[in-house]
């Protein structure tokens, strides 16, 4: 394929406005030159006319002295040096250039670290071997720059004289960039903070807090999907969440969990989809799909699920638990392997990783779904952060069943996405649990216990009525309604009712 020129200054690149007229560089230049059919990287690079490096939401603008040579190796070197690894772009590029272009790069610089990294990535991504002898010189280079993106310990490749520290396999390897927000979250050691908080609480209070948060998370996971199931289904799913991390994740386990989530499967096909899938609406007049997100092709599902499984058993054990949970869970939801139940299983996978890695205090579940429900708009923005860039690259047609049929190869789009926004969002959810939910719930239970004790000091009352009294006071701004005084609590004297209302007002800041 003959590439287009690399050096034209533009104001708009593939529908994305630049902050000023500039020359696309690195991945942007390669996508433009080779017309690569890939989702645009979240942040692109360009060479501006001024001697000032600056950033916008989706562009990094560099100075003329940063300008790469206007050719393949120049922009590849620029990308590896300044932009980290975008595996989807690289794989599409390697397919477009063919093996000879990469072989020429390596032969021209056999000891160069960038050349050997590209050589390794070509063979790793495409599963093929270039016509090159094994490297015999050059110090071992890291495939991923650990100052740019999160990595694993890695294994040595003597053929390329590199250390493969990629956080996954060719079947599934999303990348997470190091950002100030993620660095700060990791440095906080949220798991340690949660354990110290729990250690200061009486054991019975911990148990009650754990039970409440578990039920709250289960209920919230259904509410996120717009469902209001009976209490027994909420409790059943809560028991499943409580066991997260005890069984390895594989296709059989995911299908077992789906059966539990669905319950009544008379109108749902269980197991991996046998046709296309999308998230969105249907045109009310024609029934045509209006997708917000297009799921992976059903033909690709077995291999993608195997990739998820390999990640969970391998790289996930070396990454920070919250980073690993974000990669696994959001990777799953983008793949969307089932007809129904994907959302709750996606959030279950967060619990799975955190529990399996011992991130949670013993016996306690972080109520991630409850926090997500409370921040549902931010959650949707995070999901759309990739779906919005993915949709334009998927060619599809509607079927006579109101579904979609994907017409092009898309599996790599689900293997190699930028999970940075997802990791930042999940870390913020976990931090909210440690900073707000755990302290608030324990304060509530302490105040509720005090309420019960002080009511018993005023009047004898069975627990059933005590709970009803508490609910009435909470729902009626701390006052007993005329109806309640005349019916359920007609036995209270005016003095007792006034004492109870005054006592509730004292405790109310914690209730």
From TrEMBL:
Residues covered by the Fido domain: 249-399
PROSITE patterns: FIDO
Highest taxon in the source lineage: Bacteria
InterPro entries: Fido, Fido-like_dom_sf, Fido_containing
Protein name as annotated: Fic family protein
Organism: Sinorhizobium numidicum
